[in-house]
Each structure stands twice: as structure tokens, then as C-alpha cells.
């Protein structure tokens, strides 16, 4: 985890959206990474799988969260 913070002046962040049911990218891995790297904003979708963003309007919810800062009520 020797990764240099690309936002040394706190001018940005990286968002990770993780489906809890994802079997390709384990939720435990994403939780670990987000705890170790302070510039990452972690969002976990309880009922989401690997491609959850393509189901039930999740793409719109994610875009709204990124642009307006409003977290989806399902997260």
C-alpha cells in the first residue's frame, strides 16, 4: 500500500462503488483498500453484484451522488 496520495492538497478523491454480492472483486478487498488510502470514498451497495450499476437506475444514482453529493438512500 505504498501509493502516494495524488491529492496532496485534498483537492480531490477517488470513489469506489462496490456491490456486496460481487464475486469477482471481493468486498473485503475494497474495504481494506479504502481504509488504507484516505483519499478514497467507499460506497457499498448491499444487494449489488459485480454489474449492479447497470440495474434499476444505479448509474443515475451514482452520477447524481458524484455531481451533487447526494448519497443514494439504498447505500
UniProtKB/TrEMBL annotation:
Species per Swiss-Prot/TrEMBL record: Digitaria exilis
Name of the protein described by the UniProt record: Uncharacterized protein
Lineage: Eukaryota, Viridiplantae, Streptophyta, Embryophyta, Tracheophyta
SUPFAM superfamilies noted in UniProt: alpha/beta-Hydrolases
Amino acid at each position: 500500500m505504498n501509493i502516494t496520495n495524488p491529492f496532496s492538497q485534498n483537492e480531490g478523491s477517488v470513489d469506489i462503488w462496490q456491490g456486496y454480492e460481487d464475486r469477482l472483486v471481493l468486498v473485503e478487498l475494497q474495504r481494506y483498500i479504502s481504509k488504507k488510502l484516505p483519499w478514497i470514498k467507499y460506497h457499498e451497495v448491499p444487494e449489488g453484484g459485480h454489474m449492479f450499476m447497470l440495474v434499476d437506475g444505479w448509474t443515475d444514482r451514482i452520477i447524481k451522488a458524484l455531481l451533487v453529493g447526494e448519497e443514494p438512500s439504498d447505500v
